[in-house]
Amino acid sequence: KRQVFYLTTMYGEDQAVLEAWKTAYRDGHEIGNHTVNHYEAMAGWTQEQWEAEIDSANRWMVEKIGIPKNEIWGFRTPFLAFSYMGYTHYAIKAVGLIYDCSLNAGSEIIGDGSDFYWPYTMDNGSPDEHYIKEVPGLWQVPVHYVMVAGGGRMTGFDYNLWVDLQQSKSS
Known about the structure:
Layout: E1 4-7, H1 15-26, E2 30-33, H2 47-65, E3 74-75, H3 87-94, E4 99-100, E5 104-105, E6 120-122, E7 135-140, E8 143-148, E9 152-155, H4 158-164
Parallel strand pairs: 1-2, 3-4, 4-7, 5-8
Antiparallel strand pairs: 6-7, 8-9
Helix pairs in contact: 2-3
């Protein structure tokens, strides 16, 4: 089985972390871009700021890990904090990435998962987040909500599952 690891490159200054990322790449896992820094305030950035940050992380992965630039395909924003003006997605497309996985899917709680969208192009924006701008040719691999006991939901990421729900590796 292969996984995708989205790297925040500032953490790669730790030699052990860098070696783990190199090993993951050599073992055939996809390495995606999760920016250089992991700021919460990035949602207010301009397209130029996003492009500089994403491009800088791409260059770092090429130089430090040895990933050919044409093998860096995907992106995920820190904290799922993207620009509602479209700047993040325009920047992702402008730097040559193929997909983003920063949008939630399943915002309407139907309960049976039928409202969960699968990968789609952003040619017409987002079918689930209607305020999202059109970005022709950019793919979106949505982050699905996980339904939790009591009728709630949470974003389906490892951090949320392990920390928020206090899960362990064995659970």
